[in-house]
Amino acid sequence: MRVLLVEDDEMIGESLSDALQDEAYIVDWVKDGRQAILTLKVQPYDIVLLDLGLPEVDGMGVLNTIRHAQIKTPVLIITARDEVKDRIAGLDSGADDYVVKPFELGEVFARMRVLIRRAQGQADNLLIVGNVQLDTTHKRVIMDDSPVDLTAKEYMLLNIFMLSPEKVMSKTELEDSLYGWGGEVESNAVEFLIHSLRKKIGQQRIKNVRGLGWYISNSN
Ligand code: CA
Fold first, then answer.
1. 3-state secondary structure string, 151-187?
2. Whole-prediction pTM
3. What is the pLDDT of residues 156-180, one digit of tens each?
4. In this model, does residue 82 exceed pLDDT 90?
5. What is the Å distance from ligand 1's center to 58 Cα?
6. Which CATH architecture has domain 2-119?
7. Domains of the chain: which residue ranges?
8. What is the whole-number distance in angstroms between the Cα of residue 54 and the centre of ligand 1?
9. How far is the CA of 44 from the centre of ligand 1 (A)?
10. Å from CA of 181 to ligand 1 middle
11. Which end of the chain, N or C, is less packed with Cβ atoms under 10 Å?
12. Tens digit of pLDDT for each residue in 48-72?
């Protein structure tokens, strides 16, 4: 899952960015509203964490601009306690939810999971495809009632597939979701990852569509 973090406060940004990476999110961090708009126009994200008080263009301006441009990425507003009016205006302008500073990280993560799964049309945090279960709350994967030990990247890849069973994902889409800025991507990194994931959850579970990409199959 790839996150755009929009936060001008260095300390909050730094700690959020670190914590999100520990939760196996790919994080791109921008520090003003103009940069946020430019980035969202060219790069798809699973969710945006948006501070309201920002240089250049404030959070409300970012929200209005991207919604006007039909960018439907879920937006979680991060707001200071004295910005109640802005918060309501934010929800009216197309934000999906908000958290108030100072926040508990656990609450931020929980709200993010809700927004991401709502955007994907999922009702809860347990994804099931065939004999594979993925619990996004506890980051656990179970196959035939036994835990499967995955690396962080394998987990991310499986999560992406399981959010949209039977949907073919191109190599570029997968690279975008799995690797952030500045991370060097080897040309066959995705193929390697799929190879190692297949070894753990079964060769037949992840199907290849020649020239188009891969999908996770419901049938055993
Ligand atoms: Ca701020």
1. CHHHHHHHHHHHHCCCCCECHHHHHHHHCCCCCCCCC
2. 0.77
3. 999 999 988 999 999 999 998 888 7
4. no
5. 9
6. 3-Layer(aba) Sandwich (3.40)
7. 2-119, 126-216
8. 5
9. 23
10. 22
11. C
12. 999 999 999 999 999 999 999 999 9
